[in-house]
Fold each of these.
Amino acid sequence: SGQVGLFTGCIAEHFDRETLVAAIELLTAIGFEVIVPSEQSCCGAIHQHNGQPAEPFISKNIKVFNALNLDAILYTATGCGAMLSEYQNSDTQAVENFKQRLFDINDFLLTHWPEGLILKPAKLKVAVHEPCSQHNVIKNQQTVYKLLKKIPGLTIVPLPNNHLCCGAGGSYMLTHPEYANELRVKKRITINTVKADKLVTSNFGCSLYLSDHDGEIIHLVRLLIEQLPKS
């Protein structure tokens, strides 16, 4: 048990509330109190990608989360996590204090999963998309597969060519729409070839960009909460 802070991210805050709600429910179910600071801001990644100063966002988020008595600071989107994990500013002690408690929600759930918590089985084929931010910066894609194994009955497959970008690439889809769309088309063909019931990804930017294919693209926490036994 303990107290954790949830970083919501600016896009997910408006467009992916289901994931944030699922994260809060899951963390509560395993015994943590979840605080969502209203003063937090965008992680600053989009600004940094476009050569604009991210410092105001960095300073604000560090200040807001460091002011709270938290065991961990958690994020659900690997795109945000990649940025948060590389925060730098002049107050090195504050940055260190922030980063030491920063965790991807998947890693945190796997570490703190109660032995007695058995999820309901699901006869589904689930494909795993590994975002570039996860692959290249956070490097915790194996955690996703380990957590998925908590659901009995799943057939779990990695999406072929997971090393290739889906085209979203932070703001790449906005700055280079034609190239980004070519990557998206290739990724969608791959997704449709796998014929999975659900596609799991840990980055909302990717799921938003890929979202109009036939199957369902969701964050892992949403799949886990669906299989959580109702007490």
Amino acid sequence: PLSAAATRVEEKTSRIPADELFSKDDMLRIMLVSSANDAAMALAEAVGRRYDAFLFQDAIDIFVARARARFAILGLNDTSFQSPSGLDHENHYTTAHDLFLLTSYIMRVHPRLWDMTREPDAVITSQNNSRTFNLVTTNTLLGEFPALIGGKTGLTDGAKETLMLLYPIGRMKDGQDTRIAVIIILASEDRFGDGRRIIRWLEQTFNK
């Protein structure tokens, strides 16, 4: 469920009332399609509860510890993970290289997550109250570039505008597989303008 504690996180939130119960996939959609921090906290809380956490903060702490352990295995050595919401914290940071490693891992192991980010909108229904909620993507480039494989937006005062995009760039020499460009934009003043320019350059350079 979307607990009351999870809904108290700072913007950006889904504004869905507390205690609405959703499937895991729909909670992921709330987080990935509409970039809702309350959904990120609720998912992290659910993981912590599976490991017998009773208090909300204990559940979040368990999730953070497990995420850090996984990041170490993946070689994200320049990442310091503090909170599922990704909100500004003096010890919460990462790099373009580590984000590339994480993006590549998700493509290999959890590609459905990128599929969800390609949804321009979605309608979800709570399992306990049968209430419907409309989700709208925060990625305005989806309508402009239908070939996008996936993407994720981000925005905080400290990080400024951020954007990750996956875009196909032609084919390998054997003609079998489409290559995928991973675009990572950090500390931008105009993430969508920057993303648009990079995609157009990729199309002119590789998709002739």
Amino acid sequence: MAILTKEEAKKIIDKVLAFSKADEISASLSGNRTGNIRYARNSVSTSGETYDLSLSVTAVYGKKSGTATINEFDDASLEKTVRRAEEIAKLAPDNPEYVPMLGAQQYVNTNAFAQSTAGIDPEYRAKAAFGSIEPCSKKNLTAAGYMEDRSGFTALGNNKGLFAYNKSTSVDFSVTVRTADGTGSGFVQRDYNDASKLNTNTATEIAMQKALASVNAKALEPGKYTVILEPTAAHDLILNMMRNMDGRSADEGRSFLGKKGGQTRLGEKLLDERVTIYSDPANPEVPGSPFANDGRPQEKVTWFEKGVVKNMYFSRFWAEKKGVKAIPSPDGIVFQGGSESLADLIKSTEKGILVTRFWYIRTVDPQTLLYTGLTRDGTFYIENGQIKSPVKNFRFNESPVIMLNNVEAIGKPVRTNGSLIPPLKIRDFTFTSLSDAV
């Protein structure tokens, strides 16, 4: 029962709406089947599958709102939940920023559901793990990995005529491979809506190569270097920038898009002219939800066009106050790139550093988006277009805004953590100290 059809979901939501006596009533119904398998030291440690189905009901009187949740769906339980939400609403203080619920909306089709993923069973997970563990065992390497597959739905409805339904799937796989002496480490991550695109053996081979190549890393002096960021590394910093494109924060001078006097950088050229970033829930490579949590439609939105800030996202309250369109935050992003591969970027580099990924990223200054963190699981020195040697990991202090002004080359985008991100060649990337961690 965890995954309901559109008709089944609407039937439950319609019952909830019919029970209500509030001025406004909304219901959010979601269900998931989630499976996983985890392994470490070349041995599976845990595996399982869970099912979840839950309903959240929000009742509103004037500007007072209350929410109650339940996972039982008989009529008596549904009515009891509605009454509880109404009771809470009557006791709540007025919300000065409350905006009335939306009416009926139009949504794009996103095709985010794949039967290949919905049909994953324990045998599939076991084979996926074996395909990663076996090659490592044969080469005296140690693998630690995790795969999670999910299929589910979300449905929204209210007494203003809104109804939304979306079904989706996803499979996420990552593995870290270490050498027997613990001095070499490699990492790879893959995620898809369609599990038929995942090959854990092929992915693990990449992590194995990095682990073997990163043994006996040499120390380089910290400083400013030309770097090639693999998509996994580039994604971490770029996504942090995208999460800080809230219009209210900019208007109030609390973000990198804010200026003195309540002005913003909307319309300004802030990044290299080769940088164009957009979101599109209907993109076939990274399909997303057709609606936001409050029922607003997700549409194709350009955030940066040739380095110019084109849009920010807003709450409905703040958009109404400012007289602008209430664009919701993006589900995933597409960083428009070129045709060069990661290997091409390496070949074009006289001296530089290849970064597999970052970790433990923390904010230093939110207004300049200055971040600090560490490289990990495969950092290499490049000379005359070739990888010459592994190097010890660095701590970095860098802003994605500065980084995307120092672009030397942009590769072909690949799917990474629900987005399409290209490998990037960046000049003057700041490394501040060394780390002994592998």
Amino acid sequence: LRDGEARGGAIAQPKQDDDGKSPLGGGYTLKPADEVILEMAKTRKAVFFNEAHSAPITRTLTIQMLPKLRELGFDYFAAETLYDTDHDLQKRGYPTPKSGFYVNEPLYGDMVRTALKLGFKVIAYDVENAGAGDERERAGAEKLYKEVFRKDPNARLVVNAGFAHVQKTGKYLRGSSMGEFFKQISGIDPLTIEQTMMMQHGRSNQDHPYYAAIVQQMKFTKPSVFVAADGKAWTLKPDKYDMSVIFPTYAVIKTRPNWLVLGGERTAYPVTSDMCRGQYPCMVEAFYTNEGEDAVAADRALLNMIDTQAPEDTRVQNGMVQSQSRLFLRPGTYHLKVTDKIGRASCRERV
């Protein structure tokens, strides 16, 4: 996911027939997404965020919202493709690569780790071997209801899922979505937050035309939402989602995008090729010292020696990056692990 992280990693988003009207010129005000979500979540029992699995930027707002939603009284957190087989996740307090399909990506791991630290009861809702289409979507919705609201009618739930799993109406994978089944089964109308469409892509011609116009006309530095005078949020897909999050443009410095600071929760630390000890490519990973050797890394950076004169497309295609990078870390104590291209550890350092 390193290239997806730095270059956008999101699916191209052309204008589609079911898109709503552009918010520009429609009487909307652009507001910070966290403020809008928090206000709208006050009266909700469930908040559903979606993400683009190959674009970790779509996890950043969710991570930043978890402490605020916990303070608001939300107490359960469910994420797509967490595994039921990790029986010790809650007790252990941190995820391992065996905790779920996507968890080894550092921001996904940070999302699960954050939920655990905040005291959320973390649950796996995806049903393995449930098939595809309606079978999987219905099974996931039924499990959410059974594991949360049937056991605890006063529960308040946060869900993270991919793409249109959380939409409340419309066709999905030739059937219905988990979000629609959940609403039918539970009688609960979740606040659904779309985060996969209005963002900067690897190439400008992959951006949605609304997004291109928004970032050209408006200045904003935080994930934001358009809100009408009546308090209703704008969504690119009317009826399917309650709001669409617009992510600001970003810079990439030493191969790592600046949104990795998570709104100031993490600090960037330089990493140089000296750590590789002449072995390239090499991976530098930071792990919390108070977690086990099996933990998901807090962050990782890939280093390599390259021909700086080679065209960028050639360097990316060959998996080449600069010989300097950055690690983004929360306050804490870490040890660094450096491994070569076949996974051999070359050194460990405490920082």
